[in-house]
Amino acid sequence: MGVDASGFVEVGLEEGRLRGARRDGVLWFSGVPYARPPVESLRFAPPEPPRPWTGTRDATRPMPIAPQAASRLAAVMGDFSRQQDEDCLQLTIATPGVDGGHRPVIVWLHGGGFSSGGGGLDWYDGCRLAREGDAVVVGVNYRLGALGYLYANGLSPGNLGLLDQARAIRFVREHARDFGGDPDAITLMGQSAGANAIAALFAGGHAGPGIRRVILQSGAYGIGALDTDRAGEMGERFLHHLGLADAPDRARDLSVATILAAQGAVARETAQLGETAPPFHLLAHPPGLPADFRFDTLAADAMAGVEILMGVTARECQAFFARDPRMACLDHDGAQARLQALYGDAAAGDYARRHQARPDIHAADLFSDWISDFVFDTPTLRYADRASAAGAGVYFYRFDWQPPASDFGSCHCLELPFLMGTERAWNGSPMLGPGGPQAIERLSATMRAAWLAFARNGVPAAPSLPAWPRYARDTRLAMHLDDQPRVGNARA
């Protein structure tokens, strides 16, 4: 193995040889298969190990992403275009060297509501993290939407995307040394659906050895996991739109476009203002998860002895509601009625109390803040409380930075450009405002340094940060990340 004069590099794995390239000061491999293509008889089936290949596999081109419809946050993050293919169970790997080093390994699980995104998107380019932190950074593709999370008797057992992630982690552990990494120093890092997945991997016993640390960014733990009744209802709707209620196994032969069309129809007919959970996501049922799965109990307890960096943005749900035209005509009575319909009398009463305490707030803002608290803030704090009590070393952050005069504020996904990707990838992202990537340069460097320090030694630290205390239930101290970072209460 080694880099030739042209800048290409070859690595020999047990499965076959890979050809990568030098990129942005590190070595880059894309489209590394960690499982067999989930097509034909393997569509709607758990992942199987990759088959060996002959010759040298080209890993110098961007890998395809899982089949998906347009992201519901395209107006927030920006849009992307990438080849889609069911043959997507692949990795992107950035490493400073294939030299037998023992570098920390960061495995990235992307968000996207279990229905969009990809581990190799330019937004999530890991080259800068690999270069600055002397680390191996791995982006994971996994199956999405109905192809990854459908639960339907006679067709799919559910949680296939979760099992994909477990297979990817096993592959990374087995091959970490081939890419200059330490299989006993793995950090799992995920945002939104990716953070939910990491918790589920631990609760389901899929994380495996070698994972010392986890980074959980904006986990939507309040959406919980589907029970078999609700998941089964979504499966029945899906098969109905395919016309296959009595012959579900025929879905294995349909085109991807037909699958996505039925998935979209289910999403549209079940969508409600204030409901953030997608129709196809984690299922509290084997395979993958225990039937009594909860993030703040089983997942937190399963992380005893693991070091955790976790947190939220200050106004998560502005990403979902700021540009929703239905919010413009929402009044307080309508907002309270909507919450009562979705979450019951207690939710409506809590909204009324918050309105009484903040009488001048607009209904759209209070509604968005209430959902943010219900889906993100309070469940994340409960998770942190239990994990720290169980013996995990927890560090908490609250991302407060926001661009000037932005209706998005410090919304869901806003921390991502501070950590991953290239300036070009994030240039023009609506949530960053007119300043673009240049406006975030200083805090971005600080956050990357802190995240990389955590991956290396379990303590997030950077020269421009005050000392970051461990989280404890009685104090709930957190690092507030802004132009002037400070330590304060995680709720403030």
Automatic annotation (TrEMBL):
It comes from Pigmentiphaga kullae. Its EC number is 3.1.1.-. GO terms for molecular function: cholinesterase activity. The active site is at 192 (acyl-ester intermediate), 316 (charge relay system), 412 (charge relay system). Belongs to the type-B carboxylesterase/lipase family. Keywords: Disulfide bond, Hydrolase. Residues 41-62 are annotated as: Disordered. It is an enzyme of class 3 (hydrolase). InterPro entries: AB_hydrolase_fold (IPR029058), AChE-related_enzymes (IPR050654), CarbesteraseB (IPR002018), Carboxylesterase_B_AS (IPR019826), Cholinesterase (IPR000997). It comes from the Bacteria. Residues 11-487 form the Carboxylesterase type B domain. This is Carboxylic ester hydrolase.
